[in-house]
Amino acid sequence: MEELEQGLLMQPWAWLQLAENSLLAKAYITKQGYALLISDLQQVWYEQVDTSVINQRAKELNKRLSASPEAFLCHLDNLLRPLLKDNAPHSEATFSCDHEAEALILRVRSELSGLPFYWNFHCILARPSLVSQHLIRPLMGMSLALQCQVKELATLLRMKDLEIQDYQESGATLSRDRLKTEPFEENSFLEQFMVEKLPEVCSLSDGRPFVLNLQSLYMAVTKQEFQMGQKHQNIGDPQTSSSAFLKGIESQLPNQPEQPVSSAPDFSAPQKEPTALYRDLSCQSSRGRSQGGSSVNLAWSQLLRMDLEHSFQASP
Question: What is the C-alpha to C-alpha distance for residues 100 and 163, in angstroms, rounded to an integer?
Fold first, then answer.
């Protein structure tokens, strides 16, 4: 069952609106079983089952249907895929959820081979280590990554201000007054952000902005966490096994065709291909890391100069 746990970690979160219930959910389904994680931002519920549980529950809920556990798993995958990908249930399926004591029951009704099909996901409260693995640690990693990104952007803005100053001292004038800006002051910017933007940002409401805007970063952080965990294990060749597993998972993530149920369902929105300029800068950035960062600064300096030359014209 380790494959299910690892596969679930690599999945993005989806936002669901089921009647009055707003939920975050992620799932991973293979021929051996499934793992499902659901949260209402107050609690987190979890279910992980193998084929024996699938077989027993199918007999209890669908007495008129006779099929292998793999067939039921395939059907569940087909039902969950559109729900978690686009928040649009399968055209022939209805979903609802109920709270029972410390459990959450996600109920599904659809058809299979022309007969009614019923399924109940029995999710219990997730253990603390699971909450840490899927939420606390990734969110901490994302926060640090975003903070680092802000610092890098602030550095670039200061570089741009210096370049603007150099243009001005050389006699260049701004061709369009509306493009004029004041020199960037990081402390003033942060103070203004805290007053004007922070209240809006902190209104998490139902978690939908987190799902819509931050899943690429979430998956990048969980992938890094997984790789670091594998490197610290002393079983076999961790790098080889980690690489093979991630390759299988990533084959199901954005920009990939749908695959059989034996692999992870594709729940995330397609990503845009990087532009030629972005690819060029990325290559220079990679080289710059091994050369003390000089190539990175040069690449950004070239980009900023191209931008500024469109805004300034030399005085006669």
Answer: 63
Residue type, 125: L
Query: Which one of 134-148, 253-267, 302-316 scores highest in mean pLDDT?
Result: 134-148
Q: Which residues of 104-143 are buried (b: 16+ CB within 10 A; e: fewer)?
A: bebebebebeeeebebebebeebeeebbebbbeebeebbe
Residue 31 lies in a domain: yes
- Tell me how far apart the terminal alpha carbons of the chain are, to the nearest angstrom: 74
Q: Which domain holds residue 64?
A: 1-130
- Residue 97 CA to residue 103 CA, distance in Å, equals 10
Residue 33: inside a domain, yes or no?
A: yes
Whole-structure pTM value? 0.69
Q: Residue 316 — pLDDT band, cuts 50, 70, 90?
A: very low
- Token digits of residue 271: 């990503």
3-class DSSP assignment, residue 113: coil
Which residues are registered as beta bridge partners of 206? none
Q: 81: closest CA among 294, 239, 258, 282?
A: 258
- Evaluate whether 84 touches 95 at the Cβ level (below 8 Å): no
> For 283-298, how does the pLDDT look when each residue is reduced to its tens digit (9 = 90+)?
344 444 444 443 334 4
Give the Cα separation of 206 and 177 in Å (integer).
42
Our count of domains for the chain comes to 1
What CATH number is associated with residue 103? Answer: 2.170.210.10
- 67 vs 79: CA distance, rounded Å: 17
Residue 304 is assigned to a structural domain of this protein: no
Task: Determine, yes or no, domain membership for 56.
Answer: yes
Please report the beta strands in the chain, taking only residues with DSSP state E, as ranges in sequence order: 14-18, 21-30, 33-39, 44-50, 94-100, 103-112, 115-125, 172-174, 312-314
* Strand intervals (E) in 92-236: 94-100, 103-112, 115-125, 172-174
Cα dihedral sign, 251-257-261-264: positive
Whole-angstrom Cα distance, residue 124 to residue 137?
21
Distance CA 59, CA 210 (A): 38
